[in-house]
Amino acid sequence: MPEVGSRAAAERLLGEGGVVVDGERRPKSHRLEGGEEVELTVPEPASSALEHEDVPLRIAYEDEHVLVVDKPAGVVVHPSPGHASGTLVHGLVGLAGGGEDEERPGIVHRLDRDTSGLLVVARTDEAFERLQELVRERALERRYKALVRGRPRSWTGRIEAPIGRDRREPTRHSLDTDTPREAVTHFEVEELLGRNALLDVRLETGRTHQIRVHLAAIGLPVVGDAVYGVPDEELKRQFLHAWRLAFPHPVTGEPVEVESPLPPELQAALARFAS
User: Which helix (H) or strand (E) holds 270?
Assistant: First the structure.
């Protein structure tokens, strides 16, 4: 019997009339009684335009179902306008898979281009669907190190403020938006460094630019962030690193915990601000 891929692909095939019973199309709810003639027409798979490229990245964890990738700053996660090549997805061609988007195989969450660190990537449809569920259930723990300008008013905090595209600048995201989506960020002060602070940040939701927007909104802009924060001539990138990723394995349920050290340029910046 030909393979149709994921459940979503099978449902789409039914909706498009690719399955007939005794010569007639039937609804998805139709139950077979036995003895019917079922005809299945599976379209030829579209050829992917993605080709493997040598992209700098480190595989921090790997099995037959998932990968945890340690992404360097400067690498875009998937193809988008202005970034047709050189993305993390191009570096994972042949390794990642799952999902309906041919340009984003296996991608269930993202990191900004100039944020470094860990993200989990599916290798199969089963793992992809379960990882999406974990994201929706907020069972995918994502922790970041962020160096900010300013001194927090408390040692721990919770920021709950909807985020969407900015009303005046559509390339930015903000609290001033016509398309608000729930966004929750937690932080804890790890170290005070003069007029700066190193925070351990945990995402409860995962909106675009969430950490950068939320921290700027409470007067703690990220150092090196030229869009929402405080530019830094020496660092030349935002001080934001996804240092820890933890989740139940999408197939076995066993806990997966992966950590990533600060990249050298962030270690150097931290030493500079601490002196």
Answer: helix 264-274
